[in-house]
Specification:
With 101 residues, this protein is of the alpha+beta class. The chain has a single domain (2-85), classed as Alpha-Beta Plaits, CATH 3.30.70. It is 40% helix and 23% strand. This is DUF4286 family protein. It holds the Pfam family DUF4286.
């Protein structure tokens, strides 16, 4: 997501306290990672945020899309109109490497 600077702090707090907890109530949603960019490329008037949701399987993802997606998206659009933009990607497989897994 790209969030305008003036809304950034409030937006991130909303993600932590309301938006992500609401997603984790959706059947099949297991966990979420909130990623906040430190430095790096930024548009002058905005900052980037990424949320990675871990979903049990593709069937639960499809149920989310058909039954929950619009309602959850609308909350952000109502609370922060014109203050952010979002793109979505679906990655069906993650291979983890490292000693801490």
């Amino acid at each position: 997501m790209t969030v305008q600077h003036e809304a950034y702090a409030e937006y991130v707090e909303w993600l932590k306290t309301e938006h992500i907890p609401d997603f984790l109530k959706v059947p099949g949603f297991l966990s979420a990672d909130l990623c906040l960019r430190k430095g790096g490329a930024m548009v002058a008037s905005s900052k980037e945020v990424k949320i990675i949701y871990h979903v049990k399987d593709e069937d639960h993802l499809k149920a989310y899309i058909s039954d929950y997606a619009m309602k959850l998206r609308e909350k952000g659009l109502e609370k922060f109109p014109g203050k952010f933009s979002a793109t979505r990607e679906v990655w069906l497989e993650t291979l983890k490497f490292g000693n801490d897994y």
